[in-house]
Design a protein that fits this description.
Layout lengths: L3 E2 L8 E2 L5 H9 L8 E3 L15 E3 L28 H5 L8 E3 L6 E4 L2 H4 L31 H7 L2 E2 L1 E4 L2 E4 L1 E3 L29 E3 L1 E2 L12 H4 L14 H12 L14
Antiparallel strand pairs: 1-2, 3-4, 5-6, 7-12, 8-9, 10-11
Length: about 270
């Protein structure tokens, strides 16, 4: 019926016969312009039915690290505007952003939520430590792939669990087990046990594998990471909405090291 709103929607947004909600919105409020940011305003809920949802916006301009868009595109979108996320340029810098919580005097640090303060191979005194959750987000190339930052490999590739032994961070080793759970020992070519100088069999030691916190399958396939920042999570509030949106977008498009092949250094 002409002039009737959709059920439970704001009656000022009334529909002509055959119109979709998008057509109603455009006719009454005008065509919305494309936007590089995520902006939500609840235009449809009828206040007489319930309170409209709270408006929110997650803007690249609020990032303290490099944004993956041309600054001009956040003010005026054009057909040439693109969001291009490179891990070393846009994601890795997030881990070293100062997230210190200061006391009322403005100088005394009462808590430091900077990612690398916990997720690193050494403590504040320079002594070796196991990175929190076995995740090293500090600077430096990966030993597995020197063309990648180690934080990228730690986030996306399987790794070995580590411990500190005599002040050195090393892979933790455990005795291997056979198909039936039996402990395995070194044997010679004839299948005889190899003994040490005390006459004891020598165990076969293997590292403990751990899975990465992120999956190139996307944010929904990476709960180990994103659940930490959800309400009630141990890292709630450590990353702001714009930062979490950036990481989500990056992993949702495959977690590539470079999102533009022409940006890859020769």
């Amino acid at each position: 019926m002409d002039g009737s709103p959709f059920p439970n929607t704001d009656p000022t947004l009334f529909a002509d016969a055959g119109e979709s909600m998008a057509e109603v919105r455009s006719r009454i409020l005008g065509l919305p312009a494309p936007d590089m940011d995520l902006v939500f305003v609840d235009l449809w809920t009828d206040p007489a039915v319930r309170t409209p949802d709270v408006a929110f916006a997650s803007r690249y301009s609020s990032l303290t690290t490099p944004a993956p868009v041309d600054p001009g595109c956040t003010d005026a979108w054009t057909a040439n505007c693109r969001i291009t996320i490179h891990y070393p340029t846009h994601i890795h810098p997030l881990w070293s952003v100062d997230r210190s919580e200061l006391d009322t005097d403005g100088t005394t640090v009462i808590a430091d939520h900077t990612c690398t303060s916990c997720h690193g191979p050494s403590d504040a005194g320079g002594l070796a430590m196991v990175p929190a959750d076995q995740l090293d987000l500090t600077d430096g190339p990966s030993t597995e792939e020197p063309e990648h930052l180690k934080s990228y490999r730690e986030l996306l590739f399987p790794d070995n669990q580590q411990i500190v032994v005599d002040g050195v961070l090393v892979d933790e080793l455990v005795q291997a087990r056979g198909p039936g759970g039996e402990l395995l020992f070194q044997e010679d070519a004839d299948g005889n046990l190899v003994l040490d100088t005390d006459g004891n069999p020598i165990p076969i030691l293997v590292p403990i594998g751990i899975s990465p916190p992120l999956s190139v399958g996307g944010a929904r396939q990476s709960p180990r990471f994103f659940d930490l920042f959800a309400p009630g999570g141990s890292h709630e509030g450590y990353l702001d909405a714009a930062e979490l949106k950036l990481v989500t977008e990056w992993i949702d498009i495959g977690g590539q090291y470079y999102n533009d092949p022409f940006a890859v250094p020769e």
